[in-house]
Amino acid sequence: MTITFTTETAVRRPAAERAALMESPAFGEVFTDHMISIDWERDRGWHNARLHPYGPLVLDPSAQVFHYGQEVFEGMKAYRRRDGTVVTFRPYANAARLNRSCARMAMPPLPGETFVEALELLVGADRDWVPDRPGHSLYLRPFMIATQPTIGFYGPSSAYRFMVIASPAASYFTAGSTPLTVWLSQDYTRAAPGGTGEAKCGGNYAGTLVAQAQGKEMGCDQVVWLDSAERRWVDEMGTSNLFFVYGDRLVTPELSGTLLAGVTRDSVLTLAAELGHRAEEGRISVEQWRADAEAGALTEVFSCGTSSMITSIGFVRSADGDWTIGGGTPGPVTERLCAELAGIQDGSRPDPFGWVHKIA
Ligand SMILES: *Cc1c(COP(=O)(O)O)cnc(C)c1O
């Protein structure tokens, strides 16, 4: 079945207003002129695909998403290159992950070509919103919600809406230069075996807000999540994945089912091997993290994800004590990987893996 989009692009904000909004965008507060919507119903499948002006939704208050939380999302970026073209990064990997999240949440899959076509249409219509300053980008947020109007909990919703919205994002380089201080959450957990930890769903975020607040109170920037059974094994950071650098060897927690399979994580594993590192998936315990950092064997730790790219972690705080990694300054492996990945995205370096996809 082919899904055909209609387009309605008559309404645009004036160039001066757009320029003012793009001057120093706070992340996720400003949105472009348009959005994508596609509806799904049990007996019709996907239909009513449209590019239309950005604006509030009209939904029945009984729509299932408000009560039982069937919602999944993705996060991607569009980059403007020096030659004026606009590209995105591995969009089919995000399309595939959306569908894995949908499968876990009993929601219908969206064809990968339709997902990518939706991005192309939206970025094409709003290409003036893609920043041209180095490191800046247009953040893309595809998501899907359950819209059947019923509070009867009879099973999965019989209706859904897939949407894409877009928001100009400032440089990660300015924020990325100071290493983060992270809080090891021992009171709360994010995901349990058999749960939804590997789905990119809003519910995973709602359950972590209280730990974020606790981390902030402890003077930390981000929360690190441990496994829920032993509270001993490192999972991830809740919006990004973690890498542990031992000189020339990199280790990232294996995909145990309780952490999100980041597209950036997968890219770093490939890129690090290409640059001559040993890049492995494994298990890291809190005791090992601390002992190896204190002994100097663990030289760097960084987080990686689409929104904050590659960010150095310098300090760890936990109920059992604090420790520093590699002197608390960004290390050479972290900086090199960040520069190489940014170079592939902005076109200043070759893309031997075919990761970059032109969208406008
Ligand atoms: C999105 C996300 C990540 C990072 O994934 P990327 O594809 O690299 O952006 C990591 N952890 C969680 C919980 C996430 O939601």
TrEMBL record:
Its cofactor is pyridoxal 5'-phosphate. InterPro entries: Aminotrans_IV, Aminotrans_IV_CS, Aminotransferase-like, B_amino_transII, BCAT-like_C, BCAT-like_N, BCAT_family. The keyword Amino-acid biosynthesis applies. The modification N6-(pyridoxal phosphate)lysine is found at residue 200. The keyword Transferase applies. One of its GO terms (molecular function) is L-isoleucine-2-oxoglutarate transaminase activity. CDD domains: BCAT_beta_family. Pfam families: Aminotran_4. Keywords: Amino-acid biosynthesis, Aminotransferase, Branched-chain amino acid biosynthesis, Pyridoxal phosphate, Transferase. Pathway: Amino-acid biosynthesis; L-leucine biosynthesis; L-leucine from 3-methyl-2-oxobutanoate: step 4/4; Amino-acid biosynthesis; L-isoleucine biosynthesis; L-isoleucine from 2-oxobutanoate: step 4/4; Amino-acid biosynthesis; L-valine biosynthesis; L-valine from pyruvate: step 4/4. Its EC number is 2.6.1.42. PROSITE patterns: AA_TRANSFER_CLASS_4. It catalyses: L-valine + 2-oxoglutarate = 3-methyl-2-oxobutanoate + L-glutamate; L-isoleucine + 2-oxoglutarate = (S)-3-methyl-2-oxopentanoate + L-glutamate; L-leucine + 2-oxoglutarate = 4-methyl-2-oxopentanoate + L-glutamate. Gene3D superfamilies: 3.30.470.10, D-amino Acid Aminotransferase, subunit A, domain 2. It comes from the Bacteria. One of its GO terms (biological process) is L-valine biosynthetic process. Belongs to the class-IV pyridoxal-phosphate-dependent aminotransferase family. This is Branched-chain-amino-acid aminotransferase. It comes from Streptomyces aidingensis.
